[in-house]
Amino acid sequence: MWKTILRRVLIMIPEIIILSILVFLLAKAMPGDPFTGSINPKADPAQLHHLMKINGLYDPWYQQYWNWVVHLFHGNLGNSYQYQEPVTRLISSRAVNTLWLALFTTILTYCFALPMGLYAAKHEGKLPDSIIRVYTYVTYCIPFFVILVIGVWIFGYVLGWFPTTGSISSTANPGIQSIGSRFYHILLPGVLGALFGTVNVVQYLRSEVIDAKRSDYVRTARSKGVPEKDIYKHHIFRNSLLPIAAFAGYSITGLLNGSLFTETVFSYPGMGLLFINSISYRDYTVITALVLIYGILNLLGTLLSDIILSIVDPRIRIE
């Protein structure tokens, strides 16, 4: 297994190189520049020309790419044109916020989805199953940003139960109070994201459990007098987790990328909101770094899903 993982990692190297070239070219192909309108709407064109020249934006693309790669191997992703600070420091500060929100949303998603999917399948065709299926259809049809806007309006503005911006209170002291404030800020977006993210997990788990209930090994277990509780625990539920495990890696790394909708609606200072702002201000260094990180995370998500799948079912070995 370790040899396979090493081989998969080595295969990722040329994929990352190709991705970096494409990302760099697409970022440079964006119309506009990071300086026009950012320093002074009435700035002298000669001043803008000077800024573009000293930042190497007039150099050929291959020269700019080579300089970027050289700095990358030295741990330097450049400086942000918008925030005027190193990109590594900027992304690392935002990544902490995204990590908190991603972990909380992932845990809630599976805490909601696994019992719902199992309960719906166990009561197939009955009222609980119908209610859960209607819930999944409704949440699947409504766009995610609509759910976020409604949640912010009801729980943030009408009821005033939760904050609607930021990741931590400015008055929170370091320690337990800061942890509590951070949790308070991610509670509403985390719950809304988890309720929206349960749809696929519930539907997959429900279908797998229903299929497993009708399988031969379950009939054999029942004929031998095995209690229904043990049948669900040791036979049906474990085998039904295989498709869920296959998507676990993608869901984890997808959340780490930062939810564009969630962070934008809640003005949550994470990687998703940073990416949107960077596009608006043509902050090429931040855009390139973030998209490259997203691509690497997606590649790792594929490998992580295979590893999780092999752990859940030892009969499966990643190739």
TrEMBL record:
The chain crosses the membrane at residues 9-27, 99-121, 142-163, 183-205, 241-266, 286-312. Residues 95-305 form the ABC transmembrane type-1 domain. It comes from the Bacteria. It is a multi-pass membrane protein. It is found in: Cell membrane. GO terms for cellular component: plasma membrane. Coiled coil: none annotated. It holds the Pfam family BPD_transp_1. PROSITE patterns: ABC_TM1. SUPFAM superfamilies: MetI-like. Keywords: Cell membrane, Membrane, Transmembrane, Transmembrane helix, Transport. GO terms for biological process: transmembrane transport. Belongs to the binding-protein-dependent transport system permease family. This is ABC-type dipeptide oligopeptide nickel transport system, permease component.
